[in-house]
Amino acid sequence: MGELTIGAFARASRLSPKALRLYDELGLLTPARVDGTTGYRYYVEAQLPRARLVAWLRRVGMPLARIGEVCDLCETDPPAAGLVIGAYWARVETETAARRDLVTFLVDQLSGNPAGKGVEEMSDMRMRYAAGTDRGLVRSVNQDTAYAGARLLAVADGFGAEGARASGAAVDALVALEESVRGADVLNGLADAVHRVNRGNWEGSSGDSGTTLTAMLWTGSRLALVHVGDTRAYLLRGGEVSRITHDHTLVQSMIDAGSLSAEEATSHPQRALLLRALDGSADHARPDLRLHDVVPGDRYLLCSDGLFTVVAPDDIRHVLRTAAEPADAVSELIALALAAGAPDNVACAVADAVMDGAADGVTV
Predict the structure, then answer these.
(1) Interatomic CA distance for residues 250 and 272, integer angstroms
(2) Cβ–Cβ under 8 Å, residues 44 and 3
(3) Which end of the chain is more exposed for a tag (fewer CB within 10 A), N or C?
(4) What does the radius of gyration of the chain's CA atoms come to, in whole angstroms?
(5) Distance from C-alpha of 352 to C-alpha of 357, rounded to nearest angstrom
């Protein structure tokens, strides 16, 4: 097979000679031969599929390190490489949606239209809410904390020797924002509260304690969501239930990469290994921050893994669709976890967006 100069190979692969030299230096696309005297690079036609794949992946914005992994995988298992690309793009779309929500929020705030055009003001919308926790049937201590209020919904799942204190402190820090933070300050307020909790809550601890945290704070006709770890948030809208948080766990990263199925993840020996949590480490405490529009009729569920790891998704969906009130949903979900053996603490918080009266709430 004849060799191609770097110029000819660049034209055939639609990559510039400059890019080819960079990819050679990174080990991403190594020439078939480099002339020992002139240093000229030569390629062969068999390298074109990899080069074209590199070009396509660069166009969709995939990082170079990830491209190398995908290209290597494609040579041995193309379907698996396809799954990795699909998972990458799903993550990009999620992050893009979060940025789009933030841009919309900022535009509305700066243009003097904080509720958004055509959307009812929060003054016309009320939240019915309930929260509850249970120690479960195995653990000796309840380290979960759940809170539901007129503007705030929060669940934290503590771990380690001081997990109960950690989860309680995380939720308390957000409760303090319920009356004090509004409008454009809401995302900054949530981020600052998480930072303070992560920085100061574990002073004097044994170093193995921490907590996950998922919370929603309503502002205008939107809610701001902060999420660290594997507590989850679900939305029931129009009869359909969707998860609106992304687990920060090892198994979720493997699912995203296409190396593990969702079904396999349920029995994986490291399914509880967290990649992010409020454990005192700056690297692990990066929260996801998002904004969502609230629509009358929405029902939101926040819960710890003590619920969703033992109660089937169909059963969770059924309760969210059929429970008359948030308090009923919380009680029924905790009962399902207990009926399934409840090997872990269980925490739930449920809120309904309504237009027909004052907010009400209970703790189960």
Answers:
(1) 8
(2) yes
(3) N
(4) 25
(5) 12
Look-up of token digits 């029902």: 299
Closest Cα partner for 131 from 324, 331, 335? 331
> Per the structure block, which two tokens stand in for 263?
């079904």
- pTM of the full structure: 0.71
- Please tell me the predicted confidence (pLDDT) of residue 116: 41
Q: What mean pLDDT do residues 199-209 have?
A: 65
What per-residue confidence (pLDDT) applies to 120?
Answer: 37
CA gap 157, 249 in Å, rounded: 14
Determine contact, residues 213/221, Cβ cutoff 8 Å.
Answer: no
Q: Residue 172 has which token pair? A: 């308390």
Neighbours of 208 (CB within 10 A): 13
Strand ranges, E, within the chain: 3-5, 33-34, 41-44, 126-134, 144-148, 152-159, 210-219, 222-228, 232-237, 240-243, 288-293, 299-303, 346-354, 360-363
